[in-house]
Amino acid sequence: MAASNDVLDDMLAEAALLSEPDPDSAQPRTSGELTEIEQPKQNGPQDGASVSEGEIEDDLLNDEATDSLPASQNGALVDDLVHEVTESEPTDHALPEKISTILNNILASGLNEQALAKRKESVKRPENCNLLRVTKVNPEIWDIARKPTRSMDARLQKLQEALIKGLIPISRFAGIVGESLGKDPKVPVLPPEELWEGLSTSVLLIASANHDLNMCRRDLFKADLDENYKAICSSKEPVAAELFGDDLTERLKTVKESKKAAQ
């Protein structure tokens, strides 16, 4: 248990550097966070009307279709429906606290460039997976592409590299486990230390790629914004449940007030 806590602490310390700017990087870190994909609208009362659990239960218990069911089963069915109409997204069991902290930090603010480079360097492409690499642009297309297009593609290539590098350890372990199915379960497939090294690398790289993807998405909206409001696309603003942060209204007010003061 102590050893597992130590490696989690090491990983947490590595991820703690995430939002610090890289002094050796010539280019500023890309920023941008996309708002989450809108959830499908659910059937039910509109215009802000809420449905209480009691109202739902009363309506359903008066339905003839449930009259013949045992009371306990009635209650279970009602509970399932209440959960369905009141939860915007189904969730699973909670992650271990330290892993959750690491993920949330990287998804919000990205991974430190030094840690990112180190993790990517440790992963090599399998010799029989030629497409498990960054996809290059055909020279004929690259030569005629506009500068903004090239710039965005370069950023996407960088996050694609992190995504692919994160996929490699998972793919390798999936192959090893698949080949071990049906064999003696008492024989460990891989040493826990090797599993941890590969899986922790995958977690960090894929989470970092997701953050950088959100930064690219954020910048796609920059051209549609008034010059005074382009600052909300800054990569310094952490990603939240919505692409431009959950406090966007307050930040827009601040920008507007600053604009008035400058006039």
Automatic annotation (TrEMBL):
Residues 1-57 are annotated as: Disordered. It comes from the Eukaryota. This is Uncharacterized protein.
